[in-house]
């Protein structure tokens, strides 16, 4: 949902924006699941989050920039709490999750930094759009 909003130029900072916003690239999410399956001795939860901890404001701005846009909207916490109720807690308070177990056992992230992950996604999207246009022109 945030990607669509950012793509449309409606990127927004939620609440005060200082709350932690864990993220992970799909490649690493799958990689972490495979890593956990290959290392049955892992104890406790394996957080599928990137090691590059960012705030919600940083995430919103970086996502918007990846679409050549700005996150210019601010959505205060009160309306979000009124509309979403308890579900707003994760958006407004965040969760400071880190991949300690995976890193401790040697998992190497393909996309450890938000900027690199978003750049790769933007490149993939551009390539896919180009392929779709080329296919359309051939039909």
Spatial shape:
globular
Quickly name the level 1 CATH class.
Answer: Alpha Beta
CATH topology, by name, is Rossmann fold
Specify the biggest β-sheet. Answer: 2 strands, parallel
**Low-pLDDT segments:** 132-138
Looking across the biggest beta sheet, what order are the strands in? 1-2
What are the secondary-structure elements, in order, as H or E? HEHHEHHHH
Q: How widely separated are the two ends?
A: 32 Å
**Beta strands, count:** 2
Average pLDDT confidence is: 89
In the CATH hierarchy, what is the architecture at level 2? 3-Layer(aba) Sandwich
State the helical fraction.
40-55%
Protein topology:
Elements: H1 2-7, E1 12-14, H2 26-38, H3 56-66, E2 73-75, H4 77-84, H5 88-93, H6 100-104, H7 114-138
Parallel strand pairs: 1-2
Task: Based on the model shown, name its key terms.
139 residues; mainly alpha; Rossmann fold; two-stranded parallel sheet; 7 helices; disordered C terminus
């Amino acid at each position: 949902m945030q990607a669509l909003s950012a793509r449309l130029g409606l990127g927004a900072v939620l609440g005060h924006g200082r709350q932690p916003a864990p993220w992970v690239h799909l490649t690493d999410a799958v990689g972490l699941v495979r890593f956990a399956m290959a290392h049955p001795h892992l104890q406790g939860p394996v957080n599928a989050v990137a090691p590059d901890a960012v705030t919600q404001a940083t995430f919103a701005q970086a996502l918007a920039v990846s679409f050549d846009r700005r996150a210019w909207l601010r959505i205060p916490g009160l309306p979000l709490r009124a509309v979403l109720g308890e579900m707003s807690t994760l958006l407004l308070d965040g969760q400071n999750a880190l991949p300690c177990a995976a890193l401790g056992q040697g998992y190497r992230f393909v996309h450890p930094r938000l900027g690199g992950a978003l750049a790769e996604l933007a490149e993939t999207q551009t390539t896919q759009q180009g392929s779709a246009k080329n296919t359309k022109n051939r039909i």
